[in-house]
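User: Design a sequence. Structure:
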């Protein structure tokens, strides 16, 4: 049996969905009612049962985009890994001051730093140096995303047994895995001494310009 063809509204839905992967918004912007968007749109893109021809069109479009941009699940995982283990020491000089941005490794200039505040220190109208504050985006979150990746499965908790007090407790994660993840989190959040930054913490350093 031939696959059903997309009608104009379904073609628009596929195109809209690829923008931000929000099926509800895509459905509304394609002309479907708010009720249909809220109750059915997710099913169209999550499995091939509700609208198999729409699901297939979405999957083909996503595959073509991945091939065109060369950005796929492997690329995302490699990127997350690089960001999770990036060394804060790479943006500090031998004296512990923050290097000029132009000297930072590329990984630090492409999203790891969420805010950069540079202020001149003045005494009697004369510049005596700068205070540089760097705010690093949430690297613990990156570790969590890596752990949730389908091919890693580090956080695949299964609530299938009870503890001695009768409450449900997560299974599926060994003590060794928990210890390893704790070690990674500890290294990211504080492994480089007082200058290390994790989550929304800030570090500042003076770089004299006398």
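Assistant: Done.
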């Amino acid at each position: 049996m031939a696959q059903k063809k997309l009608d104009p509204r379904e073609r628009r839905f596929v195109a809209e969905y690829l923008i931000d992967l929000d099926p509800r918004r895509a459905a509304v912007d394609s002309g479907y009612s708010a009720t249909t968007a809220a109750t059915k749109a997710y099913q169209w893109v999550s499995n091939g049962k509700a609208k198999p021809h729409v699901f297939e069109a979405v999957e083909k479009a996503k595959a073509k985009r991945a091939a065109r941009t060369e950005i796929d699940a492997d690329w995302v995982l490699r990127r997350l890994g690089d960001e999770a283990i990036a060394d804060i020491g790479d943006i500090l000089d031998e004296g512990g001051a923050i290097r000029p941005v132009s000297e930072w490794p590329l990984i630090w200039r492409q999203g790891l730093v969420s805010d950069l505040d540079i202020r001149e220190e003045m005494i009697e109208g004369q510049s005596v140096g700068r205070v540089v504050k760097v705010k690093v985006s949430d690297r613990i979150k990156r570790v969590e995303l890596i752990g949730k990746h389908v091919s890693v499965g580090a956080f695949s908790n299964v609530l299938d047994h009870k503890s001695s007090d009768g409450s449900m407790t997560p299974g599926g994660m060994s003590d060794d895995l928990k210890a390893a993840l704790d070690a990674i989190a500890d290294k990211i959040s504080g492994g480089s001494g007082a200058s290390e930054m994790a989550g929304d913490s800030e570090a500042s350093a003076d770089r004299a310009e006398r």
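The longest helix spans residues 52-69. The domain at 8-69 is CATH 1.10.10.1400 (Arc Repressor Mutant, subunit A).
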